[in-house]
Amino acid sequence: MIRVQREGFDIGREIAALTVGNPRIGGIASFVGLVRDLGGLRSMTLEHYPGMTERQLARIDAEAHRRWPLEASLIVHRYGRLEPGEPIVLTITASAHRQTAFDSCNFLMDWLKTEAPFWKREEAASGEHWVAAHADDDAARDRWQETG
Amino acid sequence: MKILYFAWLRDKAGMSERQVSPPPGVATVGALIDWLTDQDERQAAVFADRSVVRFAVNQDFAEADTPIGTGDEVAFFPPVTGG
Question: Chain B within 8 Å of A128 (Cβ-Cβ)?
């Protein structure tokens, strides 16, 4: 499942709602990304491409299910103005086994970073600027390339 | 044809979306960029460095040789920075 929303989220409730009533789940992995402040950041505004964002997240989610035997998964990504310390993104994967949950959760984040149309603008005391993309995010995505 | 701009490309374009009617010979995203660049200085500024421009046709990532047609939605944006 995927959701794109302005409001925050409660990771405990999300995990409970995602996994309730499924006794086959043996492990749950989750990741929460936060607005980081390395000094002087007032806020961050996340812009997205409504429509394409949901499609891309749904594809990434489907790809994780194609690659791993998942019992459940969730991607929640926020948009709009966020302050330092606020959560931006949540990924949860649930499977029979631990390694599947860890790996697929990692995969969701790596792919999301380069394949979902979001853009960050930082507002600091010194002014505003659009965050530049990182080459190491591309490298992180590419390590999941399937061979053969 | 609907054109959308996101992030700093929108800032440079001075608009978030517009309707355009390129001539019939403009059949790919690359040709559309060429045509838009010739329209006015703002569009030229948007596409000044094409290496940092990504695009989508009808909400799917596209390449310069991706075909386009009347009624398509073509979006231009910088490399994504979500997550």
Answer: no
